[in-house]
Amino acid sequence: MKTRLIFTAFIFFTTNLFAQLKSPDEFLGYQLGTHFTPHYKIVDYFHKTAEAVPQAMKLEKYGQTNEGRELLLAYISSPENIAALQDIQKNNLRLTGLLNDKPADVNCPVIVWLSYNVHGNEASSSEVSMKALYELLNPANAQTKAWLKNTVVIIDPCLNPDGRDRYVNWFTQMVGKNPDANVDTREHNEPWPGGRINHYYFDLNRDWAWQTQVETQGRLKKYNEWMPQIHCDFHEQGINSPYYFAPAAEPFHEVITPWQRQFQTTIGRNHAKYFDANGWLYFTREIFDLFYPAYGDTYPLYNGAIGMTYEQAGHSQGGLAVVTNDGDTLTLQDRIAHHFATSMSTIEMASANAGKLISEFKKYFTEANTGAIGEYKTYVITETNAGKLQALLNFFNNNGISYGTVNGSAIKGYNYFTGKEDIFSATNSLAVSAYQPKSALIKVLFEPKSKLSDSVTYDITAWALPFVYGLQAYAVKEKLLGGNYKNQINNQAISTTAYGYLVNYNSFADVKFIAALINEKFKVRYAEK
Questions:
Q1: Across all residues in the chain, what is the average pLDDT?
Q2: Whether the Cβ atoms of residue 264 and residue 248 lie closer than 8 Å to each other
Q3: How many helices (H) and strands (E) does the chain have?
Q4: For the chain, which terminal residue's Cβ has fewer other Cβ atoms within 10 angstroms, N or C?
Q5: What pLDDT score was predicted for residue 359?
Q6: Helix (H) or strand (E) segment spanning residue 72
Q7: Contact call for residues 359 and 106 (beta carbons, < 8 A)
Q8: What number is the average pLDDT over the span 465-488?
Q9: Which residues lie across from 290 on neighbouring strands?
Q10: DSSP bridge partners of 475
Q11: Separation of alpha carbons 429 and 424, rounded Å
Q12: What is the pLDDT of residue 382?
């Protein structure tokens, strides 16, 4: 009798908790897609939902934007997985070799990370984030409950809140009581600078590796603490384009594995099933390649995940409704429905293929840790400028790349600045080994020459770190590595009786120093000779 009473009380308590869960329409007071939702209301919805179902959702603030808006991650899974979330995270890092305290358990949940609205005026996907969150937690949805038994879903509802609110605030001021679907009207012609970019007018979808912006810095810190098996980046394109999903177009970078290619096709076919059933148009393989390493699809790919971009028609021209070239009317509700379909389809396929995703993920990092990726095994930086070296060290630390030292004479390696094999010497020089979890990313970032399967690429084709940071460096085909590296900065006392000081201007640290002098009202001049 006592056991039955306890069980009944548990059922009542759980049901009562889920009863507090509201759909986005109930919470907002309007149907999704009839208005653009300001960022603060999206944040409120995520907070209220986390309060309603704490046993199935955890919410974390990972930073704030330059304009003070919250950056959030929501973790959604079964109550059992949420209770063990920290253990799941640690085990996932063991699969990569980034954590080596004990062997990894391969019978573990798969991790799916959904990133919405990196470009602020591609605004439909933050609306989708609320709908996806609700359906994952909806107690009446038996399908999502089944998926979450072996899947942890991470949702970032808005990667670029400042840009999104710039667009949403502008649109709200322009639109009348009833939206005008005529593409030539004011509400479809966003003025410069537009909402695509963040507060400092930076494109956050080119910043994944470089991490120059606060939004990216906070997000990548969490990303590298989780290392998901699947990452999806939600975008929008011109109003006349069908929906785009994987598989991507050539060129694929050569480090992308056959399994990563194969699963893009597998997941694309599942998306197509739902789009076909609804009569929605879509395309694959025509544009959006996988090459430049700082996108929301390629950076995850070079870190062992299945990285994908999804592109819905709309963008700032979409508004709440717009007439396209073929005479159809594209609505915000249509855009939400399409992105929601690929969101759910992605989670469905992750759950259905969890075992294979985990085993291939582990295999990827086994090869990385044994130096099987790429012809060069050590990258040696013989540069002596402390400022440049510190900038590179910061880059390595932000991306979870390990480094050490090399000492030796008569070392043979590819000289980045002569383009030839040279003999060089190294004395306590900074070095990066290919024998580590980040091996594929290292190969991509250090490659002297990129191999292109197709000369037509989406945009950027060159990025080698020695050229980015202006560093003398060599790529070596042998495994070389010594002890721990520490950047030696020579702090010298300066004369207080000097007339002036000469400063070499050849690193970003020097730029910061000169800016600080100017801010303190020092007179700064320059000489070219």
A1: 94
A2: yes
A3: 18, 16
A4: C
A5: 98
A6: strand 70-76
A7: yes
A8: 91
A9: 252
A10: 379, 414
A11: 11
A12: 95
Over residues 223-268, the pLDDT tens digits come to 999 999 999 999 999 999 999 999 999 999 999 999 999 999 999 9
Beta bridge partners of 237: 313
What are φ and ψ of residue 196, in 5° steps?
-55, -45
**Amino acid in the structure at residue 195:** G
What pLDDT, in 10s, does the model give residues 269-295?
999 999 999 999 999 999 999 999 999
Beta bridge partners of 131: none
Cα 125 to Cα 332, 343, 408, 431, 466, distances in angstroms? 10, 10, 53, 41, 37
Strand partners, 424: 411
At 4 the pLDDT is 53
Q: In the chain, what is the straight-line distance between the N-terminal and C-terminal CA atoms, in Å? A: 93
- What is the token pair recorded at 108? 């573990």
Let me know: does 111 contact 322? Beta carbons within 8 Å. no
Handedness of CA 71, 76, 82, 87 (dihedral sign): negative
The amino acid at residue 409 is S
Q: Kindly state the tokens that stand for 426.
A: 């190294």
* Location of structure tokens 């003398």: 472
Q: Which of 26, 294, 290, 45 is nearest to 155 (CA)?
A: 45
